[in-house]
Design goal:
The complex is a heterodimer of chains A (about 550) and B (about 400). With about 550 residues, chain A is α/β, with parallel strands linked by helices. Chain A has helices spanning about 1-20, 30-60, 70-75, 100-115, 170-175, 175-205, 220-230, 255-270, 310-315, 380-395, 405-440, 445-470, 470-490, 505-540, and strands at about 85-95, 120-130, 140-145, 155-160, 165-170, 240-245, 255, 275-285, 300, 305-310, 335-340, 350, 355-360, 365, 375-380. Chain A has 4 domains: about 85-205, no CATH class; about 235-395, Collagenase (Catalytic Domain), CATH 3.40.390; about 415-495, Substrate Binding Domain Of Dnak, Chain:A, Domain 2 (Up-down Bundle), CATH 1.20.1270; about 500-540. Chain A has a 5-stranded mixed sheet with strand order 2-1-3-5-4, sandwiched between helices. A 5-stranded mixed sheet of chain A has the order 8-6-11-14-13, covered by helices on one side. In chain A, strands 9-10-12 form a 3-stranded mixed sheet. Chain A starts with a helix and ends with a helix. Residues about 1-20 of chain A have low confidence and may be disordered. In chain B, about 40% of the residues lie in helices and about 15% in strands. Chain B contains 13 helices and 13 strands. Chain B has helices at about 1-20, 40-55, 120-125, 170-180, 240-250, 260-265, 270, 285-290, 295-300, 315-340, 355-360, 365-370, 375-395, and strands at about 25-30, 60-65, 110, 145-150, 155, 160, 165-170, 190-195, 210-215, 225, 235, 275-280, 305. In chain B, the strands form 3 sheets. Chain B has a 7-stranded mixed sheet with strand order 3-2-1-4-8-9-12. Chain B has a 3-stranded antiparallel sheet with strand order 5-6-7. In chain B, strands 10-11 form a two-stranded antiparallel sheet. In chain B, helix 2 (about 40-55) packs parallel to helix 5 (about 240-250). The longest helix of chain B has 29 residues, at about 315-340. Chain B is extended and about 85 Å long. The chains are: A alpha/beta (about 550), B alpha/beta (about 400). At the A-B interface, helix 7, helix 8, strand 8, helix 9 and strand 13 of A face helix 1, helix 3, helix 4, strand 13 and helix 10 of B.
């Protein structure tokens, strides 16, 4: 349709103009039909631009930004979404007391404990253990009460492998219920005091700090907790543990590490396997030399020994030459290093005494001065003290708290702490993601991020309610999933834009592209508008 | 009210970070130019690499980006070497040492050639990688990590060119640091850049805990230090040379206590021939606190160590472990019994109930497959199909 029209326009325009160019200075009036044709053509071009070009341009240059639940994310990151509480279920069990009396003791103990710190994080729920106890919550501690015939002051002993407090007391009529309750209250407070302190410390600098107001943290306790948290690795679902034997000379060239690990380390890691997975590697390196950047051992004549200076301990690991690179796969590596000094430098001692030290968030180092018979091979019994120290370093590097003196309780306490810190970390990641997506407007947000965020929030909510119900294993697992999902959302690989384009760049790109096309279109549109207006003025 | 609360939260956060110490050191060393005439940029970066390695940062915590390989360049009249001084005493590429003293050995390059791109650099900082990215090529830092970022190449006002093909702007860099800070990926960060108009790269930064320093002011060039007539090109830039001069002379070991302020004061106009700049205002405590930081807090891998207090606990530990062992034995016996009940024919595989167990199990499918292949039916099918194929071939022929 356009072609014949155009043809007529050219014909009508061209022939009269060339013939009468000299005679008349003004072109003959166009027929209204041809004027309208021209207008329609111009309009058609503009219509193409507006209906095809513009949407296409917007479509190809816009960035997909999935809708994120900003409000919920903010609620979590500001700590309003969950009121953290830690109910501690303690069951009283006895073979000697009647159930009524036991229940009375339980009730009194609970009241006294919760009266003392009604505002605090930890609330105690004490129940007398009978046959039909409900299994909906985990029991944090079982207090097993034994009555003895001789009357003496009550005493308590915490079992190390199970969360059980063995309590012995004299006959009820001689000791009295109140005294027993007071004793029990005191014991329970002592057991959970440190954990309460460390969770308070965790929450104090977080947006969830409102929950921790009830507990007063002394400076001494703060320092101790700070030291412990500095030392411990960040939580990971997998840890690699590398045991390395570095010998300065050619011997000992072997160690019975398999057997030693089986005896001393694996039982421990098995207990910790509810928190994380562990992968163990071992290696032996001979002729390991010191790094040139440390002073090295100094001979001390008084004791006829070599002393390693305190200032050298941090540079002791020869990072350039000792093959201590991290293990393949996800998760951090805990390095356990046993160093055997060469024959010319024995005995090698630390300036400060002791023979082992811990490098925070890296691992533990030990020095063993071998005896004559240990020269060739270190047997399991030679390795026993070494492994005990490693075990000690290992649990402190994994963040297991120092108290109470029961391993089972310490691991349970670790689980509560880790659940808390994972919730905090996931919430803070949500907040970071939320702020970031608002601040960087040109960054793409793929739908997978929105899915992960939803997942994070739902798991966080579950973790929170589990926590408040006292189901700590579940809370921990949910918090772990939430944290992993939050990390996945934040570190979404496609969320890397070449973010910043200066305006000059945009001009430089668009002008050569659009300029030649836009100029005639705009000029003709203007011209036509002008003539349209003039025509209107004339006719009116 | 809301901004006030968030300000309080922010101050509290700052305080929390300020009291905490760092536990690991990372270095990101980037050269952004290739080709022979840019020899000096690679020498710059390798010099810094040598320094941080010398001061104890392990290779696993150094991310080295080298766009070209000068040692193997056909124009190099000393093949297999890179020098940063015309004395050619120190081979940065493969330090074999001199006489008695052992050298530091070779270098570990994490990103080479075409991998040195703006995108990869931003990804490295923000840790946005597909899951296949090996961990040795990632910056796995946390809120207890101090990071040294050193960049060198050709740049201009608010940008640094990457490999003649693209450029990173100071705004991109600032946003990347913001993302790192939001995700708590650094404790403190020292940003160093040696390029023309280097000081224009850091005014755009807006995240706390950064100290930034550059070699030259706006509209100033950064100059090379000297050329080696036999190598044929300039071997090092002035500002980097000044840094090295200081670090080599003053930091002899991991015990030396030298402050950042002393290093910054060493950048005089006489030495650098341009106005080196430092930005302190992002750092909590400002210039005073920043200048008082130990150089080793960024260039070395020095953390506080804790000497264990003897064997005070050993006794109780031994007891605990003994008990643990018994516990594990009981649990294992129980498991064995259960396994025996469930499948009486199969011997229990859990010999030591350890982590090795998992590996043994994972090794099993391969054997099973081999076992499955022994069945006569499968073999008959295999022979049959071979015969059929052979027949078909003969027939068609």
């Amino acid at each position: 349709m356009a072609e014949p029209l155009q043809g007529t326009v050219i014909d009508k325009d061209a022939t009269p103009a060339s013939e009468k160019a000299d005679a008349v200075s003004v072109a003959p009036p166009e027929s209204p039909g041809s004027v309208w044709t021209r207008r329609i053509i111009i309009l058609a071009f503009w219509a193409v631009v507006a209906t095809l070009g513009l949407p296409h341009w917007i479509w190809t240059t816009s960035i997909y930004r999935a809708e994120l639940p900003a409000e919920q994310m903010t609620r979590w990151s500001e700590g309003h979404a969950c009121d953290l509480k830690y109910p501690i279920h303690v069951a009283l069990e006895t073979g000697s007391l009647p159930l009524d009396q036991l229940k009375a003791i339980a009730e009194k103990t609970e009241n006294t404990l919760n009266l003392d710190n009604g505002q605090s994080l930890f609330s105690f729920q004490i129940s007398a253990l009978d046959d039909h106890h409900n299994a909906t919550h985990e029991r944090a501690l079982t207090a097993s009460m034994q009555q003895q015939s001789t009357s003496k002051a009550p005493s308590a002993n915490l079992l190390s492998m199970t969360p059980t407090l063995e309590l012995t007391h004299g006959p009820m009529d001689s000791i009295g219920t109140d005294n027993l309750v007071a004793f029990l209250v005191n014991e329970l407070q002592q057991i959970f005091k440190d954990e309460q302190a460390s969770i308070t410390y965790l929450l104090r600098h977080s947006p969830f700090h409102a929950a921790s107001k009830g507990f007063n943290l002394g400076t001494e306790a703060t320092k101790a907790i700070e030291k412990r948290t500095t030392r411990a690795f960040k939580y990971s679902s997998t840890y690699h543990v590398t045991f390395s034997l570095f010998a300065a000379s050619a011997s000992p060239s072997a160690w019975d590490i398999e057997e030693a690990l089986r005896q001393y380390i694996k039982p421990l890691l098995r207990q910790l396997s509810t928190v994380s997975d562990f992968q163990i590697d071992t290696q032996v390196q001979l002729f390991a030399s010191f790094s040139p950047s440390i002073a090295g051992p100094q001979y001390d004549e008084a004791t006829n020994s070599y002393k390693l200076l305190q200032s050298d301990l941090s540079g002791f690991i020869n990072a350039a030459e000792w093959p201590l690179s991290p293990s393949i796969g996800s998760g951090p590596t805990l390095n356990m290093v046993l160093y055997i000094p060469g024959p010319g430098q024995t005995p090698l001692l630390l300036e400060t005494g002791g023979n082992s030290w811990t490098i925070p968030q890296w691992g533990g180092v030990q020095i063993l001065n071998p005896s004559e018979k240990q020269a060739g091979r270190l047997t399991t019994s030679d390795l026993e003290p070494v492994m005990l120290t490693f075990a000690d370093q290992l649990i402190s590097l994994l963040g297991v708290p120092n108290s109470p003196p029961s391993l089972a309780m310490r691991i349970a306490s670790l689980k509560r702490e880790r659940a808390t810190s994972l919730i905090l970390s996931a919430s803070s990641t949500l907040g970071a993601l939320n702020r970031l997506t608002r601040k960087l407007e040109s960054i793409a947000i793929p739908p997978s991020v929105a899915t992960s965020v939803d997942e994070t929030i739902s798991h966080l909510e579950q973790a929170c309610s589990n926590l408040r119900e006292g189901r700590y294993q579940l809370a921990f697992e949910n918090a772990r999933t939430a944290e992993a999902e939050a990390e996945k959302a934040f570190f979404e690989p496609s969320m890397v834009g070449q973010v910043y384009f200066p305006d000059e760049h945009k001009v430089a790109v668009y002008v050569p592209l659009l300029g030649p096309m836009a100029v005639p279109m705009i000029m003709s549109a203007l011209k036509e508008l002008k003539s349209f207006r003039q025509a209107k003025v004339k006719t009116s | 009210m809301a901004p006030l609360t968030s300000l309080f939260a922010f101050v509290a956060l700052l305080f929390a970070f300020a009291i905490a110490t760092h536990t690991s050191n990372w270095a990101v060393l980037v050269s952004t130019s290739r080709f022979w005439f840019n020899y000096r940029h690679l020498a710059n970066v390798l010099s810094l690499y040598r320094t941080v390695k010398r001061l104890g940062i392990p290779d696993s915590q150094i991310i080295l980006m080298l766009p070209d390989d000068m040692a193997c360049n056909p124009r190099n009249s000393f093949p297999g070497t890179v020098f940063n001084d015309k004395s050619r005493l120190l081979d940065l590429y493969d330090d074999k040492g001199q006489g008695e003293q052992k050298g530091m050995g070779g270098i570990e390059v994490d990103y080479r050639g075409n991998e040195v791109t703006v995108e990869n650099f931003i990804r490295l900082l923000t840790d946005r990688w597909p899951s296949s990215q090996p961990s040795s090529k990632r910056l796995m830092t946390d809120d207890r990590s101090n990071i040294l970022i050193y960049m060198t190449g050709h740049g201009g006002n608010e940008f640094l060119k990457f490999q003649d093909a693209e450029e990173i702007s100071s705004f991109d860099l600032a946003d990347a640091f913001e993302q790192m800070w939001e995700k708590k990926r650094y404790h403190e960060l020292l940003f160093m850049i040696d390029t023309c108009q280097a000081n224009t790269m850091y005014p755009a930064f807006y995240t706390p805990n950064i100290i930034a320093t550059g070699s030259s002011a706006k509209d100033q060039s950064s100059y090379s230090h000297h050329a080696d007539q036999d190598v044929g090109v300039a071997v090092i830039d002035r500002w980097t040379y000044t840094n090295l001069e200081f670090l080599e002379a003053r930091l002899n070991g991991t015990a030396s206590d030298v402050r950042l302020g002393e290093l910054f004061d060493y950048y005089t106009f006489d030495r650098v021939h341009s106005e080196a700049g430092v930005r302190y205002d992002l750092f909590p405590g400002g210039a005073e606190a920043a200048r008082d930081r130990r150089i080793l807090d960024f260039f070395g891998n020095v953390q506080g160590v804790e000497v264990d207090d003897g064997d005070a606990e050993d006794g109780s530990w031994r007891e605990d472990l003994e008990k643990l062992k018994r516990f594990v034995e009981i649990a294992e016996a129980e498991e064995k019994r259960m396994a025996a009940k469930e499948s009486p024919s199969e011997p229990a595989s859990a010999q030591d109930g350890s982590i090795a167990e998992g590996r043994q199990k994972s090794g099993r499918p391969a054997r099973d497959m081999a076992k499955g292949g022994e069945s006569w039916l499968k073999q008959a099918v295999g022979v049959g199909s071979l015969l059929a194929l052979g027949a078909a071939w003969v027939v068609i022929k």
